[in-house]
Structure formats: C-alpha cells, structure tokens
UniProtKB/TrEMBL annotation:
Protein's UniProt name: ATP-dependent RNA helicase
Pfam families xref list: DEAD (PF00270), DSHCT (PF08148), Helicase_C (PF00271), MTR4-like_stalk (PF21408), MTR4_beta-barrel (PF13234)
UniProt domain Helicase C-terminal: residue ranges: 323-517
Residue segments, region Disordered: 1-48, 59-78
rRNA-binding in keyword set: no
One GO term (biological process): RNA catabolic process
Phylogenetic classification of the source organism: Eukaryota, Viridiplantae, Streptophyta, Klebsormidiophyceae, Klebsormidiales
Length: 1012
C-alpha cells in the first residue's frame, strides 16, 4: 500500500466519457490535470506540476530577516519514496531539512502524511525525539500501527494504553501532550520535533483550547510540523506560531486536488443525476435549474406517499425502490464503487443500510474473506460477547459488502469495518460525519443523503467547509481519474446557496480558546507561566490584536457617516417612528393570539383562503412606512411538527408546533434566513418561478383567514391543477374589490380573553395617535423616516464596534478570568496571591469532567460512605451527555442506593453554581445542575457488579458504542481522581477509585484495539 495514496488497489474502471448512466446531461471532456506521479522513481524526485498549484510563504517574528539554511553538502535524504513527490511535498521537506517549522495545508488524500513521515525519519536520523499528536485515540492507535511498521522505534501514549514510552518517536493524543507540558515531563525536554496532525481541530468548540495550550507551552527549542485541511487563513496561523515561538514558520499551501471531483444532484423521486460542478470547478447553471425543477414534483410525490402511509392504518410503504437504493445500485452497476454514503443520524445510517440487504455486492471469495477477518477480530471477545445482538446483526450485512460506521457501534466492530473497507471487502459504507475526520479511507464515490443537518440549535444547510471535508473522501489517488460526489436533494435550493456549498471556501481556522478552572489552576502551579501570560500569547488574543487596526479605521468611517446624517425635526420624527413600531408589535401580538393552534386549526380546511405574511428578507433595510408584503393563498393541509430534536430545556414541556401547507404565488427566500421561520418572496405572475407553489409555513406567518373556501383538486402535483386553483383565488379577489371577507376572531373563531381585548384596545389607541400626529400627512415623512432609520442603524453599529474594539484592546476573556479567580478564592482553591491550596491541587488533576463539583464532593466526604459501585455510578453523571428518550423518568426510577448520592451531587452542584453566579460568572444555575445526568447510573452500577454486557443492553435503548464510550471516560476520570487522592495523601479514597477501575475495566468494554 502506497503511504501517500492511502488506498488499496482493486478492480473497477474510471468514469467513462461516453457513459450516460451517470447523468442525463452531456458529460464534460477530460480535465487537463497534471500527470499522475510515476512509481519507481528513486530518491526525492518531484512531479512535473504547474508551479501555481503550490503557495510557499514564510512567517517571521517581527523585526527579523529570513536567512535560509543551506543543506549539508552530500547529505542523503532521511527517507526515500518509491514515487515522485508532488511540489508541495518537496517544498515542505526542504523546509524541514532547513530545521524550520512548517504548516502544510492541503486537501484530504493530497499526501500530507509524506511530510510527517519525513520529519520523523529526519529526527531519528539525527538521534532526536519526535512527538506525533492526533485528535482522538482511535486515530492515534491507527497511526501508531502505521508508524511502527515503518520505523520500529515508536511508542504510544493515549492515557489508557502505554506502549514503549521510552521510544524516540511517541504517538499520543494532544491531551496527553498538554498534560506532559504541565507536569514538566523529562520527555518534553528532549523533543526536537512536534508533529500535529489535523491541527484545524484547534477551532473545535470543546477541545480546541488543548491545541492552543500545547503550542504555547511547547519548549522553545522544538520545531513543529502542522498538518491541516485547506484553511483560507493559513498565513495568520503561521504568523501566530512565529510570534509565540520567535522562529520562522513556513506555509506550504495547495488547493490542488490530485483526483478532481464531479458534483451531481439527484432530485428526490427522480431517475437520473445532473452534473452541476464539473472537474474544472465550473458551475453548470442550466443543469442546476433542470435538477431543481425536478425536485418539486419528486418531493411532492414522496410527501403525498408518506401522508397516505400515515393515514391508513397498517398501510404498506410506498411501492418501488427508495432513492438511495437506486443510487447505490447504479454505482455498483457502473463500477463507481467503493461508495461512502454520509447521513447525519446514526439511526438513519442503520435504516438506509438495511434497505440495501436485497443487494449482494460481494462474490464468494470476498464473502469468505469478510468472515475470516471478522471472526479473527472477534476471537478476542468472550463467548457471551460474541453473541451480542449488534455483533450478530452486522455480519450478514458485511458479507454482502455493506457496512455502517458511527459512534454508536461497538469500537471493535468500527475497527473491523475500517479494516474491511481499507481492504476493498466493503463496497458500500453508510457513515456519519465523523468518518470524514482523520481516517485516511477514500472511496470512488461519495453520496450525501441530505443537504441539511441539525447543529444542536436548528436545521441548516451544510456549510461549504463541512461539504469540502466530506466530499474530499471521493476519488482515490492513483486509482481513479476523478471522484464522484452525489448530493440527494429533496427541497428547492437557490443557485447562490448551491454555489456557496459546492464551490465555497473551507472554514477559517479561528480560535475557540476558552477558560476552565483546570487551566487556571494548572497555570498557577506552572513556574514559567501565568494565566494572563497564556491569554496574551493565545491565538485568540493574536486574532483580536490583528483585527484591531482595521476595526478602528472602520469605526472612524462609521462615525463620519453617522455625523453626516441630518434628520429634519428629529424629535418629532422619532416620536412618529416609535408609534409605528409600537403598532407593528401590537399587530404581531394580535396575530400570535389569533393563530394559536386551538383557535386556528379548526379553520384550516383544504380550500380555505388565507392571507400569508411575507416579511422582508432584511428588516433593517425595509421601507419604514411599508407594511410587510402579503399574498392570498389556499390551504391544502396542515401538519404537526416534530420538535423533539429542538428541545433545549431539561424537563421543559414541549409546545406542539404546526405548519400549514399553502398554495400561493410565493417561494421560500433561501438566501435570507435558515431558521424555522421561512422568509417568503412573493413573485409576480409571468416572472420565472411565478407558477403557484405549495409551501409549508409556520402558523405565525398566517396573517388572516377568509370566510371564503374554494374547491381544489385532491392531487395538486400537476401544474394544471395548481393553476386552476390560482385562477379561483384571482376570481375571489376580483369579486371583492374592497377586500376579501375575513373571519371575525371573537364571533367566528371564539377567541376570548382579556389578553386579546387588551391588545385590540391598545392598537386602536395607537392608530388614533398616529392618524392625529402632526407628521401624518407630511409629504416629507417617508425620506425623514428613512434618514432616522439609517442614523439609528449606524449608531447601533458604532456601539457594537466600540465594544468589540474595547475588548480587543484589553486581554481577551479578562472579565471571565477575574470572575473565575473570584470563584476559586471563594471556594478555597487558591489564595489572593494565586497560591494553589490543597483543594486546588486536587482540581488541577481533573481535566475530563467538572473539576469543582468533583473536588467539593471529595472534600465533603460524599465518597467516603459510598461503595465502589455507587461511587463509579455517581461518576457517570459527569461524563454522560447524550439525551435519551426517557430522560425525565431516569432520576425518579433510581434505587435508593443511587438516588441518595445523586441528591448529594445536585446539592453541591447547586452551591457551586450559586457561588459562580455571585462571582459574576454567566451561568444559569438550574441548567448547570441539570447537566449532571443520571441516565446511565443503573447501567454502570450493574456493570461494576459484574453483569454481562448483553444483560446491560437489555436494560436500555441507547447505542452500545455510546455506553462503551461513557464507561471508558469513567475509567479515565477514575484514573485522574486516583492520582488526585494520592496527591493529598488520601490513600483509602485512592484505593476506592482504583477498585472502580478494576471493576469497570473488563470484557468488550476494554477490548484491545485491532490496530495495536
């Protein structure tokens, strides 16, 4: 296997120029890409590629001049490759030989690993120590296996596994590296090179801070090799490294993709693919419009089929193969495999894979090979674990060449599936987004089952950065002349959104630095640093400082613009504007009351005419005198919306939400807002897109209901049926020139209550004040209101910019640092002089859970009276974060032996939360207490008592992999608590935590990685 290519050769030809099964549109000609590298070339030969494909810059510390070092005469390369190096690889190696740090930013599968391997070979040649870090343990295990085969003198440190810690090359997670810096490890004094793989993890909200700490705390004599996906601000990151470590940092950037990609759309319910971006990155506007037009009919048909299936009890699912079945079958027929199908839900991955069970993608030899690999891996498990439902369920699928990969799988199954995929024994893999991170497993084809994802807040389009990361798996270097990306589309999309996704740039590498009590205490204990010094040297501070000059210049511009806006009779105009805004709010309140489900649902029968609100896309730029646009449409249906995924609050009741399907001459404006609220754009008759369309709207966009109903056809999919309904609306509007009769809220809709009457009275009063205002009939009112709106917008912009500039001029997170220090002093963790107390020493040892609450539990004696099982079960509340179906009942069903410790935990968490609140921390005490979730306490206690894994899984609906991950995190936390207890002489408590480790660390939960 070629270490640069990261792919295993197998049969299956490239996409043919004349092949019409891929698309119903003309195929582009072959890209005039650079020639493929020739195998067999000795030494560091460089492929003949255009020089423009590589950007090389060097970032220098301020006030220094770069003096490149000449290579030693007659020196041999540290490592020779059996293929020709790409220019970016050769350039990066040149920088390494000069003994200087380098950031390599390139696409997935471009060959960044070559640079890392050369750095390791070079360090070993010079008898130096080198550290290779990766973001997650699974990647570290995989990388250890690869490097150990190549270099032999390689060790591994991931916390739960330590192999050859004395080795010259150490593979570890970034968290271990950070910990070694703080503990002053001897190893760190000897490190000459630090390779940081996937350094774009630095922008990760939760764990990115670890990368920043590690880079800042690294020894001054160390040099870095940063490997990253393409980031547009690579120079900014390198400038920061050069400043912090007073050394040059080279940037070798290439957006050249060794295997060009073709991007296709597959409309829902359609039969063919449409090429929308060719291998030269040209956007095919005509093909895109054809595909979008095909979406409407297909999506409507699917929706109608779903409704029929829902409505009829025991109704059969819609006839015919699913869209994903059609795509996978086409991929296999045309030998565009292997294919990775990305879905954003673990349940969907499994459901889609089950749909493929009619297909058998492997021949008899491959089926035998799959069984052999599978059972060889399972031999490490006990007989009971071999009978687990997940183990038995997945083998028939794997034999057919179909796999699934998500965090809910047993880790050993995930690794088996990775190995089978690498060996070409799986042709179709259904995976979640995490598969696209780090693992070097390209395929010929990548399929997206959806274009939207749930980000914890709302459903949104996939960002261009996410799309680049996942689509980058398509196309195996040296095997495919191009990769194929298929985007399944079940809703209309504007060209601007599609171009932004398919042709947009990668996400910027921005700091996600945040403070924690562990970080503060570790810094206070560190003789060479302070929290302020770390903040001053952080990437976050660097980005804030760099943005300041531009921000100050922009403030001066906006100040001048604000001063130049004069409003004639400003006080009078402001009074009128405030009355207008007050009336708008009252109208919104009126609409909210009237369109409450209990009032409006009985009147949403098919055929009812309703007035739909079309708010402006940008309310700040809207005409201050113009009301929001409205259009009349026809109700076709209403549906209850599943809000389970959007439930934010612990234990809060969910209010039912509904959407109403309306046939109207308007379309969703996808460029405006991507939240639950749809911004509608009315379209004039005769303009493109003006055909009547059925759109789904939230109830709060229903402006009024007519007393008129018209007849509509049962099937509105044909354009003719929709146009006939639209003509009926036009006829109603013609017959009522003075306004369509509407339902009276009180008489017809039975809206009753003091709130409604209060709103109506206020609205009448404000309307009277507006009509009697001195400016009501002034011809200059509109321009004066527009001037006032512009002046107010500039004032708001100035306020925000000044606040931003003030924050940038001081140390970032300064206020939060002060607040956290106050908390530590109040609770007795540190003195006013930042001397760490005994409690602080304990908290500094805990980095994988809430250090304050755990420390308070220890010092309150809460663990003293608990058995090993109770203590371990209680720790599960610190690591479990997933939401489960029966979350509200989890605490009430707990046995007394666990309910007592949980109550003590919540009392202490409440006290810690109140102290933090009093110390001016931004914290919601109730939410803080609720984050300690008891969902798996019973399971962990049973596991500690010796229950079999199969027995535990019968007690819950959660995924096996999720529980194993939680148990492993508990074991890691127990190790930290054991060290903390020993550090303060609590040997009895340390023994209890050690007992927890021994009880929890067994069987399939801690089965050895197949990579080790």
């Amino acid at each position: 296997m070629d270490s640069r290519h990261g792919a295993t050769k197998r049969k299956g030809g490239p996409v043919d120029e004349g092949d019409e099964a891929v698309a119903k549109v003309p195929r582009p000609s072959e890209a005039d890409g650079p020639p493929a590298a020739q195998n067999g070339a000795p030494g560091l030969l460089v492929a003949d590629r255009p020089p423009a494909t590589v950007i090389h810059e060097v970032a220098l510390p301020e006030g220094t001049v770069h003096q490149p070092k000449a290579p030693k005469p007659g020196s041999k390369p540290a490592k020779e490759y059996p293929f020709v190096l790409d220019p970016f690889q050769a350039k990066a190696i040149e920088c390494l030989e000069a003994g200087e740090s380098v950031l390599v930013s390139a696409h997935t599968s471009a060959g960044k690993t070559v640079v890392a391997e050369y750095a390791i070979a070079m360090a070993l040649r010079e008898k130096q120590r080198v550290v290779y870090t990766s973001p997650i343990k699974a990647l570290s295990n995989q990388k250890y296996r690869e490097l150990a085969e190549e270099f032999r003198d390689v060790g591994l440190m991931t916390g739960d596994v330590t192999i050859k810690p004395e080795a010259s090359c150490l593979v570890m997670t970034t968290e271990i590296l950070r910990s070694m810096f703080y503990k002053g490890s001897e190893v760190m004094r000897e490190v000459a090179w630090i390779v940081m793989d996937e350094v774009h993890y630095l922008r990760d909200r939760e764990r990115g801070v670890v990368w920043e700490e590690s880079i800042v705390m690294a020894p001054k004599n160390a040099r870095f090799v940063f490997l990253s996906a393409t980031v547009p601000n690579a120079r900014e990151f390198a400038d920061w490294v050069a400043k912090v470590h007073c050394q040059p940092c080279h940037i070798v950037y290439t957006d050249f993709r060794p295997t060009p990609l073709q991007h296709y759309l597959f409309p829902a319910g359609g039969e063919g693919l449409y090429l929308v971006v060719d291998e030269r990155s040209n956007f095919r506007e005509d093909n895109f419009q054809t595909a979008i037009n095909a979406v409407g009919a297909g999506a409507d048909a699917k929706k109608e089929a779903r409704k029929k299936a829902k409505g009829a009890e025991g109704a059969a699912p819609p006839a015919g193969p699913s869209d994903i079945f059609k795509i996978v079958k086409m991929v296999m027929t045309r030998q565009y495999d292997p294919v990775i199908v990305f879905s954003f839900s673990r349940q969907d991955c499994e459901a889609l894979a089950r749909q493929m069970m009619k297909l058998d993608l492997n021949d008899e030899d491959h089926r035998k090979a799959v069984e052999e690999v599978f059972w060889n891996a399972m031999d490490s498990l006990s007989e009971d674990d071999k009978k687990l439902p997940q183990v038995n369920a997945i083998l028939p699928m794997l034999r057919r060449g179909i796999g699934i990969h998500h965090s809910g799988l047993l880790p050993i199954l995930r690794e088996v599936i990775e190995i089978l995929f690498q060996e070409g024994l799986l042709k179709c893999l259904f995976a979640t987004e995490t598969f696209s991170i780090g693992l070097n497993m390209p395929a010929k084809t990548v399929v997206f089952t959806n274009v939207r994802k749930w980000d914890g807040d709302r459903f949104r389009w996939i960002s261009s950065g996410e799309y680049i990361q996942m689509s980058g798996r398509a196309g195996r270097r040296g095997l495919d002349d191009r990769g194929i990306v298929i985007l399944m589309l079940d809703e209309k999309m504007e060209p601007a959104v599609a171009k932004g996704m398919l042709q947009g740039s990668a996400d910027s590498l921005d700091s996600a630095f945040h403070l924690s009590y562990n970080l503060l205490l570790s810094q206070m204990r560190c003789p060479d640093s302070t929290p302020e010094a770390l903040l001053q040297r952080s990437y976050k501070q660097f980005q804030a400082d760099r943005a300041l000059p531009d921000l100050q210049a922009r403030i001066l511009e906006v100040e001048a613009e604000h001063a130049g806006v004069a409003v004639e009779g400003e006080a009078e105009v402001r009074e009128y504007a405030e009355l207008r805004e007050q009336l708008r709010k009252l109208h919104r309140d009126h609409r909210k009351i009237v369109t409450a489900p209990q009032h409006v649902l009985p009147f949403l029968q098919p055929g009812r005419l309703i007035r739909v609100l079309c708010p402006p896309a940008d309310e700040d730029k809207a005409d201050p005198l113009a009301d929001a646009a409205v259009v009349w449409g026809i109700v076709t249906n209403f549906e209850k919306v599943d809000t389970a995924k959007g439930d934010a609050g612990e234990g809060r009741p969910r209010l039912p939400q509904y959407t109403v399907d309306v046939l109207a001459p308007c379309v969703p404006d996808e460029t405006a807002g991507l939240g639950r609220r749809k911004v509608m754009r009315p379209v004039e008759e005769g303009t493109p897109g003006a055909e009547p369309t059925v759109v789904a709207l939230p109830l709060d966009q229903v402006d009024d209901l007519s007393s008129v109903r018209v007849y509509i056809a049962k099937d509105l999919r044909p354009l003719e049926a929709r146009e006939r309904a639209a003509r009926a609306v036009a006829e109603v509007l013609r017959r009522f020139p003075d306004g369509v009769p509407t339902l009276d809220p009180e008489d017809d809709m039975q809206v009753d209550g003091s709130a409604y009457r209060k709103v109506m009275r206020k609205a009448e009063t404000v309307e009277a004040l507006l009509q009697g205002h001195a400016l009501a009939r002034s011809p200059s009112l509109r321009p004066r209101l527009q001037d006032l709106a512009r002046k107010d917008a500039l004032a708001a912009q100035l306020k925000a910019m000044r606040k931003q500039a003030k924050a940038a001029q001081s140390v970032v997170l300064k206020d939060e640092l002060k607040a956290r220090r106050r908390v530590l002093r109040r609770l007795g963790y540190a003195t006013a002089e930042d001397v760490v107390e005994v409690k602080g020493r304990v908290a500094a040892e805990v980095s994988s859970a809430d250090e304050l609450v755990l420390t308070e539990l220890i010092f309150s004696g809460a663990f003293q009276d608990l058995s090993v099982e109770q203590a371990t079960a209680l720790l599960s509340c610190f690591v479990w974060q997933e939401k489960v179906q029966n979350k509200g009942a989890a605490a009430t069903r707990l046995k007394e032996e666990l309910a007592g410790p949980l109550s003590a935990l919540r009392d202490i968490a409440g006290r810690v939360g109140k102290v933090a609140e009093e110390c001016k921390m931004e914290i919601d005490v109730d939410e803080y207490v609720a984050k300690f979730r008891p969902d798996i306490m019973e399971l962990v206690a049973a596991w500690c008592r010796g229950a079999k894994f199969a027995e535990i899984m019968k007690m819950t609906e959660i995924f096996e992999g999720s529980l194993i991950r939680a148990l492993r995190r508990i074991e890691e936390l127990l190790r930290q608590l054991c060290a903390a207890a020993k550090s303060i002489g609590e040997t009895e408590l340390a023994s209890k935590f050690q007992g927890g480790i021994e009880r929890i660390k067994r069987d399939i939960v801690f089965a050895a990685s197949l990579y080790l």
